[in-house]
Amino acid sequence: MKKYCIVILLSLISSLIYAQIEVDAYVNKTKIGIQDTFEYVLEISGESGSNFKFDFPEFENFRNYGVSTSSSTSVSIVNGKMDRKTTTTYKATMRALKTGKLVIPPVSLKLKGKQYTTKAITMDVVDGSLAQVPPSAKQNNQSNQTGSNLISDNVFIQAEIDNKNPFRNQPVIVSYYLYTKLEISSIDFESEPAFNGFWKENMVIPNRFQYQSVNYNGQRFNRIFLRTISLIPIQAGKLEIPSFNLNVSVRTQARSFFDFGGTQNYNITGTPLQIKVNELPPNPPEGFNNAVGTYDLKSSISTQEMKVGDSFTYTLEISGTGNIEHMEIPVLPEINHLRFYDPEVKTEMKKAANKVTGEKIIKYLVVAQEEGDFEIPPLKFSYFDYNQKKYITKTTKSYPIKVLPGEQQAFVMTGISQKAIGIEGNDIAYIINKPDIKVRIVIFDTFYFWLTVVLGLFSIPVSILFANEKAKLISNEDYLRQKQAAKILKKYLDQAAKAAQRRDMEFYVLAQNGLSSYLADKMRIPRGSSTAELFRELKLYNDNEELSEKVINFFRKCDRIRFMPGDNSGESVEDDYKELRNLVVDINKLKKRGKK
Amino acid sequence: MRLVVILSLLLSFVTIKADENVLDKYNSAITSYENKDFSTSLSLFLEIEETVEADADLYYNIGNSYFRLNQLGKAILYYKRCLRLDPLHKYADQNLKLAFSLRKDKQTESEDYFISETFEKLYKALPLNLLAISVIVTFIIMIVIINVIILKYRYRDKTHPVFFLIIIITILLLLSILSYIKWKDFHYSSEAVLIGDTAISYSGPGEDYTRLFTIHEGMVFIIEKENEEWIQIKLENGLGGWIKNTLAERVH
To answer: Model confidence over A245-259: pLDDT tens digits?
Structure first.
């Protein structure tokens, strides 16, 4: 029992949630013409407040002209139970893009977690239009004459071509007109068709469409000029010029008091034109650059005399009728020492209704690179005249040019095409055939390197000591004298030694002077002090009484010999020299007595 | 002129008179190479290598022999050894580049900035001995300037000599740092080349570790750690792992 209850409850809940939603899709007609539009309707009905987002799908082979959405809510009360139902309708206006059996695929959409799928619809699409001509304002007047209700007989595109047998590269002019018996409210160009095998150029595009009443095949039509284009066939043979594709809205007339009339859309395509393009005659002359038409050639030059490095312009003007925009420019010959830069090409087209005219101005900037007389040779320009059906060659004047020496040389190299050396293979370099084995010395690891460093560093304290010594000498006179004392003594001693060798009495003078000066310096007393002073200072200066005595005795001996000559035979000179030397050695050893 | 001669003498190497035996061997090795008997020339060159101390050209020739015998890893190793001794060895550099281009792995070098790249090039191109001479010359100039300042500028304005001294000291410092790095690199470089065909790198010293990457013959890397069987390597692009030590050989 419990189980049943649960099942019922579940089904009730599910029915509450899902049961009411329905999705349906349908069209207003299944057999249509390719020019006709039809309506595709997608209807979703369900609970009120069903709120969802839905992107209208795109169908292959069909074109969607716009979707309108509407929503309605109905309320019904059955047996006291209120049912609220909301229906959302998507109405799309569509057109088939090709003929045959086409299928509008099923639409799948997800609502409240459940997937809904519509049925596929098969459309039977035939050529032309099955639509009945709507009762239009114009048509009412002419209904007797038309005889046809088909839209394709009442609205069509007609192309007019000026030449169905052009030569290759000869422009042909094509004008498109729309013929109609109905009242047209708007014309839209569909995508531009592809003009295969042509250069296409728009010639005239009207700002607004103008009606012109014409007689076509015995019927009265309104003709609307659409546009004129020029086409330059770039290949020979049979070519097809496609027609434009138009979307035309036709205004319908009000049929009753309540009908205000409306518009109906039709898609109209003209029939393509077939043309046969002739190949140009063989063996074109020199200077032919695919120019077809009738042309005039002019040339001019800005100056004919200049200095080296100056520039001038050389202008070519080609004007006339033909494929002026698409022909190649004439090629200038190479002239040594004149550098032609890439030309500036300006093409101006005059848009006339029935022919392509214009002019091409080619300006070369030329730089004179060297002095001398040069000539710009005559230039040949050939074109094919389709009226006379033959090639015509026109020639420019030649221009002599005089280049004078200039101040500055133009360093513009004439380009020589160079090519990099192509690598053809890759291999290692050859072995080194030099059998001397070398052992590398790492200088950082050598003894001499570090010796140099140490010696260099050692030189710094040495020179500091040396500099200090020097400074002492300069600042201290006594020290200087003490230092000099030895030198002076040495000088006297040398002289004395020589005198002694000669056994000259001069020895005693030298010995006495030298010794006294030496002592004076040593004891820091003024030089030239008397002997008595010297003796006194000597006794004060040191403790060695014996030495002092010896010095004093030596001095006295010297005095005696100096002032009593003849007393000495000179035999004792050498002994006295020895005594002097001993004395000096002893004095040198003397230490200054400690401070008193 | 004399200076140039002295410099070039200092820069070059003291030529040791190799004994006749070695010279004969060298000549016959070259003859075998010329006769395209590369395995003979290689064995002869290797014998010479055992007896003679390091020589850049010898290494270069050994590298060439290995190259001819399709032992790319060994060839790269010996070119590297040659360039270690003589960074300006043009042919070795050229051949090394070619050998690199034939490796299976593309060794992506870490992208350097322009300045560091230039510095590195300069650093690589400067021979150690040239640096040594530059250092000693600058050092002597510095000592001379110091002594001149001490002796001659004691009681004079010292601005100019001190200015020069500062410049020289700066140059000397830079050169010394560069020299030290280079010298250290020269003696204690841990660069190595993969001489085995392929090497699988693991995340640790053992085959049971995670497999990291595979490198092929001729790859150059730095040895970071070493144990009995395994070495920890680091590639130039920063990848690291452990490989068997028998597969690699140190440049130095």
So the answer is: 888 888 776 666 666
Residues A437, B18: C-beta atoms closer than 8 Å: yes
What mean pLDDT do residues A82-111 have?
81
pLDDT band at A13 (very low <50, low <70, confident <90, very high): low
8 Å CB contact between A485 and A584:
no
Q: Indicate the length of chain B as a whole number.
A: 252
pLDDT tens-place string over residues A246-304: 888 887 766 666 666 677 788 888 888 888 888 888 888 877 888 888 888 888 888 88
Angle among Cα B232, B234, B239 to the nearest 5 degrees reads: 115
End-to-end CA distance of chain B: 36
User: Which site among A430, A444, A454, A470 would you substitute to test the B interface, given the most B Cβ atoms closer than 10 Å to its Cβ?
Assistant: A444
Question: What is the full DSSP assignment across chain B?
Answer: -HHHHHHHHHHS-EEP---HHHHHHHHHHHHHHHTT-HHHHHHHHHHHHHHS---HHHHHHHHHHHHHTT-HHHHHHHHHHHHHH-TT-HHHHHHHHHHHHTSSS--PPPP--HHHHHHHHHHHHS-HHHHHHHHHHHHHHHHHHHHHHHHHSTTS--HHHHHHHHHHHHHHHHHHHHHHHHHHHHHH--EEEE-SSEEEEESSSSTTSPEEEEEETT-EEEEEEE-SSEEEEEETTS-EEEEEGGGEEE--
Neighbouring residues of A391: CB distance < 8 A, sequence distance ≥ 6? A281, A284, A285, A288, A382, A383, A384, A385
- Assess whether pLDDT exceeds 80 at residue A541: no
Partner-chain contact A443 B27, CB within 8 Å: no
Report the C-alpha gap between A582 and A262 in whole angstroms.
155
ipTM of this complex: 0.74
Q: For residue B101, which residues of chain A lie inside 8 Å, CB to CB?
A: 426
How far is the C-alpha of A365 from the C-alpha of A382, rounded, in Å?
23
Give this prediction's pTM: 0.40
CA–CA min distance B177, chain A (Å): 13
